Predict the structure.
Amino acid sequence: MKTQIYSAPLSMFGAKVQIAALEKGVDFELVMVPFTKDDTYEPKHPEVLRVNPVKQQVPILIDGDVELFDSTQIFEYLEDRYPSPALWPRGIAERARARQLEQKSDEVFFPNVIRLFGLQHDMQSAPAVAACAACARYYEEMEGLLATREYLAGPYSFADIAFYMAHVFADRKGAGMTGATPRLVAWRGRVGERPAVRAAVDPMMRFLASEGRGVPAFLQR
């Protein structure tokens, strides 16, 4: 049976997995779960409930008898299952740093974006201003990394995929990049023009537009 990836029209983590699979040339079936306008996924797809019964969230990857949830764990599986092209650096230390960057995108940067989801009605409030400031500081940190390299961990990697998608959602919620980080803006352009990235992100933006929701300026085709 063909590998299956369960995602959703506005799933950042699902898009991460889709991009990684496309970069590696995996022949997979993409299954989109039901979506409602309040950013929830109902009714829950039975395969999502079966594989991820506690969190009940996408992404889900099913590859024969391998059934996984969590985008980072799926990244690791794809790297083992399809080692070429590599999406982690070769060196042990470089790989460790890239893995840390991927985790920081999800666990350090993105929680600030999650806070903004509930503050869209009052972006001048102290919590919203603080969340945007935290995002800006993170952008500055990534800008520093790009002083000596083209991508965040050296070669293009899962770290770039993770942070690119996290930034797409940050921009949607009012914490986009500015001219203060020109290297990072250029990095965003390089990553965003990759065919695998466009194949995952362009349909997401079309879905947003069809729902009457704003599309980030840098993704308006």
